[in-house]
Structure to design on (854 residues):
């Protein structure tokens, strides 16, 4: 204990302060009083035990004195350890200086400095002046980092301040290891060691594009480029997971979808409540937003970091620099501090400058950002290619630039551009060492899956990713989506179940599982997961849509409609909810209501995707009703919207698949002419993939040669591009060819197998099966397939037609007539040229016109 003295002396002064005490008092007086009680219970006794004396309590702050700087700091450590366990949010500062002690109070510059630097400490943290640091830095286990020289009001010189190492468990005297060493096996079988983050220390943050409203539009790229660069830099830290609205490079397509759906496609000027909502839906602990200004070539960044759970602002940062890369480097460090990552970890963790992991060329970086933004928001492959090509010519080692150029050139449908594809990916892989591990894994997955067509190695890369980041959900989600895309549903379900075990609160998993179970018609498990999703998100329209979809697939259309209408109440401007309601109306035979609902939905469309979805639904409705000419007109509108957001290759391929409709009005020559025209627009090897169009048109025209030509093209395509999700397409064509040749048993085997590999198009395959069974005069099997399907899809017109024909073959005239009556009601306004309408009328006459006696 320090004796009472009325002399000037050198003492260590410790100041404590309850963080946000005034705000707590205003909002919750009981909690504020509880804080004060804890403070009085913890601080004075601890100070006394550590050879000090608390000489003043001012509101929520305390002042204590020590003869020894080491005693003062060790006391601060013990106080913080106990404060953390008691949930008392305090910060502590210590300064060693000249003071006047009269035995009751202590005054002087030393006290003022200790008080002034207190605000520099984080909640639960300790800061010390350079005078104190010189005394304690030799002590074992005592660590700290300078946070710079600080201007102290009323003092004649700056004081350098140090932040003591503070670990997530509340201790600065014992280091807490936040990562652990794991051994992983790479795609070539080599074993390597890496550091994996422990789950309890991982922080997930959503970073939104920043806002910039300056007149100089050459700086527009910063809105996306600055936060994107921060994301890339942050991915070096295994404790940080990020979400950013970027599709190809950062796998942020869900983030992008949520912004687009809300009407903020580019993520600019998003209201704070919506940012909080999206961050919560993305399961992020924190979210970041910011503004950019440029003054005399100096970039000024003002950013704010928020806690997602309550929307509370944690910190506001203002930084400026003429060098963008230095801004990114400095800010990515600051973000980690803001979200509670210790200085000790930041210093120990690899943290290369952004220029080293991307490019040193500002021009290359600017062209790169403009290139990916042009692709993402304008779907302009020509401009994007030129920007990305310029970026990679400026810096051939720019991995992300080459990776993005690979994607752009691959699906640009431009022969000149496509020549760059292989070269770009090769350069990306040659310099893959520059990227942080998670980004390098993402690039390697595409390298093996798309570039090399090696599905096994792609999966090995994802499994390495999982091993190095065992607590991260991103690689598990990637693996599950790989399985889903390849129709390996059981493996996808098992992977999603692992995600559930790791994080039961990660709600998106339940939605994904619902989709997987629904695809294999396991309605019970689909509903279980959808209900859990709804329990977590009772105000999310997607919750109701998910249950509506299950009921729709089950054939319970009234129940489905009820859920879709509830979803529409939550999102009253949702064109997609209206589309789903229209589908239920059609499914129960309310064709006029369905058509009116889709007309209304068009008035609520906001994006090109919205217009495409609704117009395509209209196209389908017209086709189902036999109004083929209207369907063709609608399809032309569909194509115009499709090309505004879909890549050029898929846009042409989609058009080829829908040309079969011309055959339906006896315009087969026109269908084939248009098909060849579309194929001629595709560059190699995508022109081979257009063989799907030949199979579809050939089936409708009953043209075996055209079907076989399509099969041959697809087989040749798969020799060049081994895309695993397309491996069953040749079998589809072979099955069609066997059906046309009346090799029904072979066709039935192939079609039955294909049912397990196609989520969409199952009803078409069942129609082919009915045709095959009817062809071999096994009418009972044909009828069973049709009736089982019509229970859940009662107004499928072509299915009804084939069932009616099977009943006719089975000499069951009453049931044949019953189905035909229903069918002709659907086709009440059908085009006379519609070949199936003609077939139905012919069948009706055969069944109902009695032959006159001779």
């Amino acid at each position: 204990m320090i004796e009472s003295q009325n002399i000037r002396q050198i003492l260590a002064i410790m100041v404590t302060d309850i963080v946000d005490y005034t705000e707590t008092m205003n909002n919750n007086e009981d909690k504020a009083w509880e804080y004060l009680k804890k403070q009085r219970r913890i601080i004075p006794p601890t100070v006394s035990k550590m050879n000090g004396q608390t000489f003043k309590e001012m509101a929520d702050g305390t002042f204590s004195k020590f003869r020894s700087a080491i005693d003062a700091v060790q006391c601060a450590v013990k106080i913080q350890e106990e404060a953390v366990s008691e949930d008392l949010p305090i910060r502590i500062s210590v300064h060693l200086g000249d003071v006047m002690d009269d035995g009751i109070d202590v005054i002087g510059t030393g006290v003022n400095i200790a008080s002034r630097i207190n605000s520099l400490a984080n909640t639960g943290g300790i800061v010390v002046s350079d005078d104190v640091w010189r005394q304690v830095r030799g002590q074992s286990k005592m660590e700290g980092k300078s946070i710079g020289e600080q201007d102290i009001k009323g003092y004649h010189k700056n004081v350098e301040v140090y932040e003591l190492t503070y670990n997530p468990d509340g201790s600065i005297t014992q280091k807490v290891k936040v990562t652990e060493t794991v051994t992983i096996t790479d795609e070539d079988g080599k074993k390597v060691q890496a550091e994996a983050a422990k789950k309890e220390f991982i922080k997930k943050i959503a970073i939104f594009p920043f806002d910039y409203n300056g007149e100089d539009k050459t700086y527009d790229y910063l809105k996306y480029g600055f936060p994107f660069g921060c994301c890339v830099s942050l991915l070096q830290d295994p404790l940080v997971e990020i979400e950013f609205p970027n599709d190809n490079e950062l796998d942020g397509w869900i983030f992008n979808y949520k912004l687009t759906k809300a009407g903020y496609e580019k993520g600019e000027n998003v209201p704070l409540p919506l940012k909080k909502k999206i961050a919560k839906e993305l399961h992020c602990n924190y979210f970041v937003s910011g503004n950019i200004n440029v003054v005399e070539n100096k970039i000024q960044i003002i950013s704010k970091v928020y806690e997602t759970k309550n929307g509370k602002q944690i910190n506001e940062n203002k930084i400026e620099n003429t060098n963008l890369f230095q801004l990114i480097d400095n800010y990515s460090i600051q973000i980690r501090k803001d979200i509670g990552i210790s200085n000790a970890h930041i210093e120990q963790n690899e943290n290369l400058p952004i220029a080293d992991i991307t490019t040193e060329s500002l021009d290359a970086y600017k062209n790169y950002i403009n290139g990916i933004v042009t692709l993402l928001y304008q779907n302009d492959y020509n401009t994007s290619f030129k920007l990305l090509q310029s970026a990679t010519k400026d810096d051939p080692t720019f991995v992300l630039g080459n990776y993005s150029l690979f994607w752009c050139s691959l699906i640009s449908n431009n022969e000149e551009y496509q020549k760059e594809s292989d070269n770009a990916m090769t350069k990306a892989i040659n310099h893959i060492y520059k990227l942080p591990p998670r980004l390098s894994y993402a690039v390697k997955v595409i390298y093996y899956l798309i570039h090399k067509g090696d599905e096994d190695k792609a999966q090995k890369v994802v499994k390495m990713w999982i091993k190095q980041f065992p607590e991260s959900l991103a690689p598990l989600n990637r693996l599950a989506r790989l399985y889903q895309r390849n129709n390996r549903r059981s493996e996808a379900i098992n992977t999603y179940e692992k995600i559930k075990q790791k994080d039961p609160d990660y709600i998106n998993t339940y939605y994904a599982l619902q989709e997987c179970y629904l695809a294999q018609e396991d309605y019970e498990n689909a509903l279980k997961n959808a209900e859990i999703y709804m329990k977590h998100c009772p105000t999310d329209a997607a919750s109701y849509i998910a249950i509506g979809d299950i009921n729709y697939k089950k054939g319970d259309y009234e129940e489905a409609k009820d859920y879709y209408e509830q979803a529409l109440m939550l999102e009253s401007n949702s064109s997609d909810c209206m589309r789903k309601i229209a589908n239920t109306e059609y499914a129960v035979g309310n064709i006029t209501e369905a058509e009116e609902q889709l007309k209304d939905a068009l008035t609520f469309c906001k994006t090109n995707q919205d217009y495409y979805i609704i117009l395509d639904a209209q196209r389908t409705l017209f086709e189902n009703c036999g109004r083929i000419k209207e369907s063709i007109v609608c399809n032309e509108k569909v194509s115009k919207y499709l090309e505004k957001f879909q890549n050029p290759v898929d846009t042409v391929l989609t058009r080829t698949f829908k040309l079969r409709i011309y055959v339906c009005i006896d315009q087969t020559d026109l269908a084939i002419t248009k098909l060849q025209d579309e194929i001629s627009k595709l560059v190699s090897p995508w022109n081979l993939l257009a063989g799907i169009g030949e199979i579809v048109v050939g089936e409708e025209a009953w043209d075996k040669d055209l079907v076989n030509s399509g099969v041959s093209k697809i087989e040749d395509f798969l020799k060049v591009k081994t895309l695993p999700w397309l491996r069953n397409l040749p079998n589809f064509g072979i099955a069609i060819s066997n059906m046309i040749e009346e090799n029904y048993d072979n066709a039935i085997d192939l079609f039955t197998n294909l049912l397990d590999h196609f989520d969409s198009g199952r009803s078409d395959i069942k129609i082919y099966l009915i045709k095959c069974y009817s062809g071999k005069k096994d009418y009972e099997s044909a009828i069973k397939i049709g009736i089982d399907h019509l229970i859940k899809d009662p107004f499928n017109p072509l299915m009804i037609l084939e069932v009616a024909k099977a009943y006719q073959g089975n000499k069951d005239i009453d049931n044949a007539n019953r189905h035909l009556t229903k069918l002709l009601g659907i086709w009440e306004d059908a085009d006379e040229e519609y070949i199936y309408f003609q077939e139905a009328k012919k069948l009706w006459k055969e069944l109902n016109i009695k032959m006159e006696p001779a």
Notes: Residues 7 and 101 are 6 Å apart (CA to CA). The longest helix spans residues 29-49. Residues 7-164 form a domain with the Alpha-Beta Plaits fold (CATH 3.30.70.1230).
